[in-house]
């Protein structure tokens, strides 16, 4: 009886040990915060990066809400410059009143690797004391498996201390340093023209998306023909529905660098049967002209 109990206890102990070691032996997808700032003082502007690690399984989308201490921190800017995700189903947005940053991002090609950037948050350190960044419970990853399988990643919050600054100290601004160093315009991009019954009452529109690896895209402007540039988002409803105008889209990054692309619109070609009718008419006209010439020639000879 004793041997049986000992044997059972050994099995349970081994099982518990394996379970305890599981997180250390299996690499799971992880979302975490990263910062290059060692010391943060009141009044400083600093950059926090949200990163992902998924060495074992490819992922292609993330949905998350970041929670921050609104008494200690204030979001000044968000930047997707250098982000793994090129498609934003929900553009990164923040609320300093609620202390939240939310986004839904995706990448068509998927990602599997040790580390990649999701988003940069530019914070102002408002008050001294301990500040914490955390992820909400609705943070999920989607596997790149063709089925959109949801997984719950490991989430690593970040706690840091904001020190009181002295009158002799000049607050640092990491974001302005990034802006000053960014001399590279956004990457070339494509303008696509479309028409969909579910969008803009089936009117013609354009869509576009630019990538900037340094400071990130700040805004877009669209110009139709000789009209002025106007701030715009994608998709953009064309004012000239006749498709007669040259379309220019300007992508401007957060450092002010610009990239412009053009699209020469073409009026949709007539249906095939209309083209046949056109050529039938042309042939009849030519035949009548030839007939008239021949008839006049014969009349002259008969005279």
Compact summary:
The protein is of the alpha+beta class. It contains three helices and 18 strands.
CATH architectural label of the largest domain: Sandwich
Task: State the end-to-end distance.
Answer: 138 Å
* Beta-strand proportion: 35-45%
Helix/strand-derived category reads alpha+beta
Q: Describe the biggest sheet?
A: 11 strands, mixed
Structural Rg: 31 Å
Please characterize this protein's 3D structure.
- This protein is of the alpha+beta class.
- The protein folds into two domains: 27-181, Immunoglobulin-like (Sandwich); 185-291, Immunoglobulin-like (Sandwich), CATH 2.60.40.10.
- It has three helices and 18 strands.
- It has helices spanning 2-25, 174-181, 272-302, and strands at 30-34, 40-41, 45-68, 73-79, 87-95, 100-125, 129-135, 140-143, 150-151, 154-156, 158-163, 191-195, 204-208, 217-224, 230-232, 236-237, 246-253, 258-264.
- Strands 1, 2, 3, 4, 5, 6, 7, 8, 9, 10 and 11 form an eleven-stranded mixed beta sheet that branches.
- The longest helix has 31 residues, at 272-302.
- The model is unreliable at 10-27 (pLDDT under 50).
